[in-house]
Amino acid sequence: MLFNDDLWTISVVRRKVTLSTVETSVYNAKRRLWAEHAIWSPPEHLWVKLNTDGSWLSETSAMGMGGAIRD
To answer: Model-level pTM greater than 0.70?
Structure first.
């Protein structure tokens, strides 16, 4: 595989993936993401919130996105 004009062997890719997995685990443990519950709250007066989401289906190359603006 070629990235930024560097040839990456499979061992380099495995090492990078492993390192990224460990870093993500440490980050999540510090933030306690599993303990947080996302609850929508309205913005301050005179502001609005834009909530967005999107998805991609690789089998059909279809993409979708949407959003909701609330005060």
So the answer is: no
